[in-house]
């Protein structure tokens, strides 16, 4: 899948990184998500799905993460639709406040999904494409370090927050920590994906795209190289505006 990234400076060393929304990809992703939700709706179904295949541990971990992510999305939808003034509605307000404190860089890195095999980077004409590549590489490398650390920290805190379930109140700290674990995991995987896309590692990324091609039965012959200064990397192109 192809993704378009928009990059531009805001003030001094502060830059903005955005992934533009592809409506077609969003629809296909939504339909795929719906299919997965229908086929894996309980822990029993999840166990059958994991135990019945011989996939690597990392892929089974992705299945588990997606399962709990769907559970959290449905629970969040229930809180959002709760009547005004109810306890669920107040919990939803608290959740919105907490979500507003999530850093934009984390949201950007989470948008780099595992399905992305090439990117088109759009940037102002006043910028050097090599500088743009360095900044993308920097945010990706920084993300791998930060989100790996916070992911392990969130996993460590999960057992302690789950102990609060004995209280006669909704266990908001546990669900928040569960969401943060999921969020840091996705941001970590997005950082690793972006780093491979924009780094000078043609052999490494070639093995990834070949593996994906074999899994999906698709070819990437329609990918065109736009960045003539970067031979051997047809998965990244730069477009100046």
Question: How do the strands and helices of this protein lay out in sequence?
Answer:
Layout: E1 2-11, E2 14-19, H1 23-39, H2 43-51, H3 57-80, H4 87-99, H5 104-110, E3 118-123, H6 129-162, H7 172-198, H8 202-216, E4 236-240
Parallel strand pairs: 1-3, 3-4
Antiparallel strand pairs: 1-2
Keywords: Membrane, Transmembrane, Transmembrane helix
Transmembrane segments: 150-169
GO biological process, one term: potassium ion transport
Can you summarize this structure?
With 241 residues, the protein is of the alpha/beta class. It has helices at residues 23-39, 43-51, 57-80, 87-99, 104-110, 129-162, 172-198, 202-216; strands at 2-11, 14-19, 118-123, 236-240.
Outline the structure in words:
- Keywords: Membrane, Transmembrane, Transmembrane helix.
- With 241 residues, the chain is of the alpha/beta class.
- The protein has one domain.
- 61% of the residues lie in helices and 11% in strands.
- It is built from eight helices and four strands.
- Strands 2-1-3-4 form a four-stranded mixed sheet.
- α3 crosses α4, α5 crosses α7 and α6 packs antiparallel against α7.
- It starts with a strand and ends with a strand.
- About 15% of the residues have low confidence.
- Overall shape: it is globular
The major pleated sheet works out as: 4 strands, mixed
Q: Helix/strand/pairing class, anyone?
A: alpha/beta
Mean pLDDT over the residues: 75
Q: What share of residues is helical?
A: 55-70%
Q: Could you tell me the radius of gyration in angstroms?
A: 20 Å
Q: Order of helices and strands, N to C? A: EEHHHHHEHHHE
Percentage beta strand: 5-15%
């Amino acid at each position: 899948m192809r993704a378009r990234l928009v990059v531009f400076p805001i003030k001094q060393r502060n830059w903005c990184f955005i992934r533009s929304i592809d409506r077609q990809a969003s629809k296909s992703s939504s339909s795929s998500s719906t299919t997965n939700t229908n086929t894996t709706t309980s822990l029993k179904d999840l166990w059958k799905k994991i135990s019945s295949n011989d996939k690597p541990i990392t892929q089974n971990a992705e299945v588990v993460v997606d399962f709990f992510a769907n559970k959290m999305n449905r629970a969040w939808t229930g809180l959002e639709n709760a009547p005004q003034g109810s306890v669920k509605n107040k919990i939803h307000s608290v959740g919105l406040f907490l979500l507003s404190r999530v850093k934009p860089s984390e949201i950007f890195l989470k948008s780099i999904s595992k399905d992305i095999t090439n990117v088109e980077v759009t940037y102002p004409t006043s910028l050097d494409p090599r500088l743009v590549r360095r900044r993308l590489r920097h945010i990706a490398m920084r993300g791998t370090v930060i989100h790996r650390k916070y992911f392990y920290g969130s996993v460590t805190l999960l057992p302690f927050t789950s102990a609060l379930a004995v209280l006669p109140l909704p266990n908001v700290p546990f669900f928040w920590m569960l969401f943060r674990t999921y969020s840091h995991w996705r941001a970590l995987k997005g950082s690793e994906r972006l780093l491979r896309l924009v780094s000078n590692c043609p052999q490494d990324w070639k093995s990834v795209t070949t593996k994906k091609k074999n899994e999906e039965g698709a070819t990437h012959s329609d990918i065109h190289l736009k960045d003539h200064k970067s031979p051997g990397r047809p998965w990244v192109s730069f477009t100046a505006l």
